[in-house]
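#help-structures

NK: newbie question. if I give both the sequence and a SMILES, will the prediction place the ligand too? trying with S-adenosylmethionine
OV: yes, paste both and it writes out the complex. here, I ran yours:
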Amino acid sequence: MRGRALDDALAEAAPAANAPLAAAQRDIAYSACRRLDLLDHLAGALLRKPNRALDALARVALSELIDHPERAHTIVDQAVQAMARDGGSALRGVLNAILRRFIREREALLAAALAIEPIRLGYPDWWIARVRAAWPDLAEDVLAAGNARAPMTVRTNRRRTTADEYARALDAAGIAAAAAAPGALTLARPCPVARLPGFEAGLVSVQDLGAQLAAPLLEAGAGMRVLDACAAPGGKTAHLLESADCAVTAIDRDAARLAAVAANLGRLGLEARLVCADAGDVASWWDGQPFDRILLDAPCTASGVIRRHPDGKWLKRAGDLTPLCAEQARLLDGVWRVLRPGGKLLYATCSIFPDENQRQAARFLNLHPDALPLPIDLGFAHGAAGPLLHRDGQLLPCARHDGFYYALFQKA
Ligand SMILES: C[S@@+](CC[C@H](N)C(=O)[O-])C[C@H]1O[C@@H](n2cnc3c(N)ncnc32)[C@H](O)[C@@H]1O
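OV: that's the protein plus ligand as structure tokens.
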């Protein structure tokens, strides 16, 4: 509500007393963020005079009342206690009154709010319009998937274990999971990373199934020089290194995020050359040796992973797309120069907006006659768990995976 990223705000909030409480705190904040416009509408209908402290607490309490009508008494009681602590006793009565009114008039208040389409869908107008224009037959499913809870999928480190062996370890730890694609297991229910057997020993990483498609699509082989141009926090860098004995140069321009790459590789027993630089400014970091493979996992709106960052849909603006697309184009054109003839570049985003994806690929092909588009064949990932939801290189968010885009180019 104050324009800051939710995870940053949560990190600065008073620490929860224990891990389950911290998880609950996060869950409550995420749930409220997913339907912030509905809560705004309800708070507007119920509150005569806005008040900052009351505004936030009222929204959180309303969100919990929507999800858990059976716990109404406890929710009202806890919200009123919190109000007394944070805002003084004067506001307690007001909060108590509006929450009780919501409980009494729930059906009518919700029906009136949900009759407004953007509130029913839970996104800003511009976002809905873009998804409808891009995926007319799937728009409501795509929007709904972005408001659902995300699945938790792990990638097994094939240098230290196998998916079958790790499935048995999960089973022994009482964590239900199913094979999702080669090396990937999706848990029946998300669980704290610390509960994953052998996590610290590098047996496994948490990575969405959609993100686990990058390394197999790029097909890096033994002895190849591979560039990961936007690497942090290193999920795909690690997957590339687990898949083949290749030499990876991992670039990120954010030093703190690059440190996370080092930590992740260390945990998994992998090594890469880490460079803190602007990948698009090739002269500043390139040693003149061309690469056989390049992964450009570009900065984007992250519209395909919005269920993991539900504040993003309210913080982002339609106008953010133009500078982002320009930056993606600059990075693509820049790193293309360091690919050897015959080499392959995989362009990736976690977006579902064509401006960042299909249109970006078309612009690139138009500008570079030496770039040949290669088909994105995801057949290897259609497994026992059912098909992926995709149109060519565009994965759309669904129960199995987040939204991602992949385009593969070969240099003539
Ligand atoms: C989508 S994330 C990459 C995720 C990563 N590939 C993974 O799988 O874990 C994009 C990254 O690009 C980095 N970045 C943005 N602009 C960059 C630039 N000009 N040069 C290098 N890195 C950049 C950001 O700091 C961010 O870490």
